[in-house]
Amino acid sequence: MLEYREKAVLEVAACTCDRCGLRMSPEDGEWHERVSLAWRCGFHSVFGDCSELSLDLCQHCVKATLGEWIRVSQRDLGDGLLRLATYVWYDATDADAWMRCPHPELGGKTPYEAATDAVGAEQVEAILGRILHGIPT
Ligand SMILES: [Zn+2]
């Protein structure tokens, strides 16, 4: 028989952009696009030997400060979802068959058809997540 004790767990509730001061919380869209970095420098760092560094930026400040050097590409939504489906179904052939089958939660589209845009891809990913965790779809 297992016994349990209560344990307090802290989670990040908000993040403030170090550049512009924008406050981001999990309830808004900016939260998911923020960049938070934290690292320890080594010897000969321009910040000082073994310094601890951290930085939180909103997506607008990332673009404003680093935008010209950031490599932007669109991920192939279908390929990523096929990998996830293969993980869920344990078989690439079964996963591909599922991706080709119309799904009622996708308005009768197949997951491949739905995954041609980001919103549809998120819906497919959510369905796969529910299947993976045994939640009825
Ligand atoms: Zn900002």
Can you describe this structure?
The protein has 137 residues and is an alpha+beta fold. The protein has two domains: 15-69, no CATH class; 77-132, no CATH class. It has five helices and four strands. It has helices at residues 59-66, 77-89, 92-99, 111-114, 118-132; strands spanning 15-16, 23-24, 35-40, 52-57. The chain has a two-stranded antiparallel sheet. Strands 3-4 form a two-stranded antiparallel sheet. β1 and β2 form a beta hairpin. α2 crosses α3 and α2 (77-89) runs parallel beside α5. It starts with 14 loop residues before the first strand and ends in a 5-residue tail after the last helix. The mean pLDDT is 90. Zinc ion is lined by residues 17, 19-20, 22, 57-58, 60-61.
